[in-house]
Amino acid sequence: MNYHNPSEATSPSADSGTTVAKSAAIMGVATFLSRIAGLLREQSFAYFFGAGIWTDAFNVAFRIPNLLRDLFAEGAMSAAFVPTFNAELTNNGKERAFRLTNLTLSALLVVVGVICIAGIVISPLLVGILAPEFRNTPEKFEVTVLMTRIMFPFLLAISWSAIAMGILNSLGKFFIPAIAPVLLNFSMIIAGFTLCPLFLGWGYASIVGMAVGAMIGGILQMAIQFPALWRAGFRYIWEFNLNDKGLRKIMKLIVPGTIGLAATQINVAVSTILATSQGDGAVSWLGYAFRLMQLPLGIFGVAIAQATLPAISRQVAALDRKGMKDTLASSIKLTAFINISCSCALAALAEPIIRILFQHGRFTATDTVATALALKAYATGLFFFSLIKVLGPAFYALDETHTPMMASIVSVVANIILNLALIGPCSYWGLALGSSVAAGINALFLYITLEKRLEGFSEHGIITGFMKILLVSGLSSLSMHFSFPWFRFQLACLSKLNMGSMMLDAVSLVLAGILGTTILFISAKAIGIHEADSALKMIKRKMFGAAASKNI
Q: pTM for this structure?
């Protein structure tokens, strides 16, 4: 089964016959809704708590189980489980694949359960390591420890959720797993209006209610996927056997896989530690910026990566090397077009975007400017963060763990050096820039190695395509940057709205975005960037959602 273009690529599921680009679009529809819910969550956070002491405390508390989630549950575990599950499914059938699933879930219940209990016990130590400056404010430290303990079981729920997602994606079911995080986001939004006042009345800091909301949301995110698994024929039965061949293969991949996919999470942790030394608000500014950067990363980058992994896993199992090369090349070019253009747009319009989204309630104009600086720095690495998610798991599908592990180690070392070098002259936003550059080093290491590993991979014209994409994205972002203030001035004259009007900013932002996007697609078409057509099809599927209904 060969792949030539993302719009023609064969599905991760042989039964459904969908394409990688179409599968990514289906997940993108749901992920878009999830990210919008996440955006509403962040707006609620900004309104209720701003970017001060309690938001810093929550960000640190949530980051500890969240780092473990990204690193282990949705990182190494998924990268190890999905190829093994697909090989079992392809070679031995659904019954054997579901038995492997039961073994994996049971092992996770034991191992991750122990980690959660240990994490709850040593939460003061973990908070002290991740946010050493918090010890100077005892109340802030104690609230951070309490929220960390409340949210640690989140790791177990999300671990099971990640396995469920891997199975459903492998079976051609993309919508439900991608929509599941909406429950986490809405749970936290509802908590802001209900649990937070309740905990304040009980004598706790009101933000503790957000921690409880996150924990409830994690459980709901896991639970919503199991009815779909039930319909697919899966039944959970406790079965614990560490000597099973398939489970041992997964365990063998997890340790180097964890190291291989750890760079981004370790780099975020290092940035958090250093950010706590930059005064109140720095952790929150970086947090708001990072999560805003994750909006296109989640909608497009992660969706493409999740659609690609099952596809290449099946191709490896079928010994289809050409198909794997074509699929990866198509995914890389599609990732490049979407994420480079998004990163340029974020950098061009960072301040008005943040002002419109967050500058309400306790979130001030000073917070807007500070967060915009961090967003611009993170935006430079958006493509690299996305590329790592596509390339890293590809090595595990090839049963090669050494390369991602080495790339991760090099990236972490580079990040630490860059952060220490940049925090002085650039303050907190230098940490975001350091993380972006480190992600670039990681992605470049993986790409160069993969090009050597897959003979003929360079024939797909990836570098040439990358340069073309960079050119049209730059033109698009320049048009946005210069047109926004022009639209703002012209509309102010026509409507006589105050120049500080949020409505004026919103309309000007939309017009600048439309102009920039139009220039992007016209110029891409003019110089022959075929990925623009695939990207446009993905966007149309997100807008109209017709494809999604077939895969729910």
A: 0.70
